[in-house]
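Recap quiz, item 2
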Amino acid sequence: MLLLIVFVFVFAFLTLLLGKFVHSKFFKFISIVPFLLFLFFTSFIPLLKDGTKNIFYRTEWMPSIGVSLDFKLDGLSLLFSLMITGIGTLIYIYTSSYLRGHPYLNRFYTYLGLFMGAMLGLVLSDNIITLFIFWELTSVTSYFLIGFNNEDESARKSALWAFSITGLGGFFLLASLVVIGSITGETSIHEILSHSNSIQGHEAFGLILVFFLLGAFTKSAQFPFHFWLPGAMKAPTPVSAYLHSATMVKAGIYLLARFTPILNDGDLWSKSLLLVGGVTMVYGAFHCVFRKDLKGILAYSTISALGMLVFLLGIGTELAIYASSVFIVVHALYKASLFLITGAIDHAVHNRDITILSGFGEKMPILATAGFISALSCAGIPLTFGFIGKELIYESTLEGGVTYLAIGLTVIAVVTNIFLTCSGLLAGIKPFIGELPKKFSKVGKLELGIALPPFILAVLSLVFGVFPNWINQGIINSVTRSIYGDFINLDLKIWHGVTTALLLSGLTILLGVAVYFIVRQSHNSMRFIERFEVFAPQHMIEKLIEKIRVFAYRYTGLTQNSYLRIYLIVIVLFFIGLVGYKLFADVPLQVNTEDLSAFRSYELIVFIITVIAILFTISTSSRLTAIASIGVVGYCICLIFVFYGAPDLAMTQFAIDTLTVVLFVLVLFKLPSFLKLSNRRIQARDAIVSIAFGTLISLITLQALVSPADKEISRFYAENAYTLAKGKNVVNVILVDFRGFDTLIETMVLSIAALGVFSLLKYNTKDEESSE
Amino acid sequence: MKKVQNSETRHLDSTILRTATNYLLPLIIMFSIFVLLRGHYLSGGGFVGGLIASIAFVLHSYAYSPKETLALFRFSPLRLIPTGLSLSILSALLPILLGLPIMTGVWFAEDVVVIGSVGSALFFDIGVYFVVIGVVLTILFTIAENV
């Protein structure tokens, strides 16, 4: 299984190489890869369908910290794997037509492949750390996908929003996973399962739960983190279809489902899930019917459906979990199909405005069929899979009998479904009926690559609706078992007889159709609904970000105003403050004069030369003199190194000094003639700062001599330089062998510095050229 | 080696310096290699060696001009940086192939004449040498060109 995921990643990078050599029309042939993966996962259905068996794959990775590449295949992960690869295949086919001739098609496929790999890794991981890594990878790769039209500023912005929100959630998730890991001492999910009591009994359980839910809710676009999802509609439509029907946002649902047996304590868990899921589903449903952008409608109805799933998991009964497993599939099928249909229309006429689009049924018969079926499934008309899903939802909300809670749950489920029904009709049927506007009359036939994928999905909605037992026996039972824990055997039926649920279904459809005819989407309705966005956290976060930016601007202006002297003064003052405080507060100051070696006459001479050179530097009015004097100071320091037996240091210092002076001279020629900018006051300030700094450094040096240094390390190096590293020059042996890693990283730092200088200056010149 | 004289010429225009440089350049570079190779036994090493070699080129660019010094290279000195880095990293990774931990010093059994024993540490140092030359020359030439 590890090999499989590695293969997906490698495959993704390989598609990048295809770009320059393969014509974009051949890209559809690489859809065979996700299809083969899909077949591979299909082959597990017979093995796993009774839900008693899980298949484990183990690979050690970092055993010392309990991170291993363990993968587990059970009903839940199999269902997700099938959706990821199955819908993935259709998206691959669809994209090859949708983005034909796009110059960066290969990149798109790479991002898509990487995302698919990350998703597969996420749903298959059995280790919480690995799970988290793949979780973050899905955020990162989806960032590339959402921001694929990277020349569009709003696309970049929404990609960043999606990334920041899901990334933020990722931090919380990590925190809670780490705590779970430290409480149980296990990192493998199936081991943690047996410790669920100790987690739920732990005093930090509330915190774990909150952090965990924050992670899952941000990913699944739950209120109040939902706002990244409509923004993510800036992505090319295949991306929206893939991310928002079956993968990215369902990752949060997957996580909740996976951890239900571990974290469901029957109280806090259900309450928070019910609350957040309930608010989200009503909020999203209410919003979607007032939009006029097709993708906007679908985005909000996705939010609503995700809320519904969270809500069902929150109810947490056997039946509710069963209903959620069914609804995951129902939603994936019809939502992917509707997204692809939207994309097809957009591709054909470059318009997504629901108030304009109509009458495409004749021109696009296959697409229209797909749209009808998907809309019916979304609305929950009998004989579609959506009907079965909806019946189950009502049955699970009604399960509690005639209590306030049960009635309340049922009411919000009905309200949500009414609006969802309407949204389905809007997206799936409205564009195809009525009269074709004149300006679209020249629309040609759709390519098969675009029309077929939504059609296949729609047909599946129908097939599962008519023969629900196929999918029930195949996988839904096994999924429910993975989430619920106990063995259950429920049956999907097309006809339950005349029950309350059926009546509610009928009511939903009726009212949904009524809403469809009453609410007219227009500019006004958009404005009406957008008024509610003021309460959305996006607004507040945007304000906060603006404030931070202003603060950073002011702060930078104060401390880093691009005068070198100010930078230096800030750095030096800060250092003096910090180190000086520590030195005078904590260290008993004393000077040990005994161990100092006697003053030798040539040292005195070097010292005098140094002082003279320094005086020259600060008093001269010629830059060249100043620089030459600094060079003299440097060379004097070299001499001191030589006197005290550090030839390596001396050599290096000598070379560096020479180069520094040379560098200065190079720049010097271009500078304007010397100006006396500083007045007495500034000079006095500088003098005080530098004298304070010099004094401080001298004091530190003297203190360093007093405090007993640990000679152990240097002795080790000196003794072992030859025996271990075959070198006689200890300094060099330390550099290239004992502390070779340091040297390696230092050379990297040097290289980065050089690249920095190079790119800064080159960039600058280019800029000037273009402005000229 | 005729050069157009104008007020913009900023090198030290001296025939003596130029002639001397022609001989000094190879000498200093040889010296830098010497310093590099002796590093394991006596004072020296890749870092100092690299600095000395770059000083040789700097001297040349003073005697002539940065452009002419750049012409001595068939490729941009910038490329020395990745070359050196890869050499260092490869020599650090080499022990892995032999089943030893990363950065373990591995040595040839036989000593090589003049250089002494040759091992991964030497290649590591040569990598540092290249990086230093690349870095110094890149910074120098970029500044010389753009300021």
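Strands of chain B lie at 107-112, 116-119.
Chain B has one domain: 15-106+118-146.
End of item.
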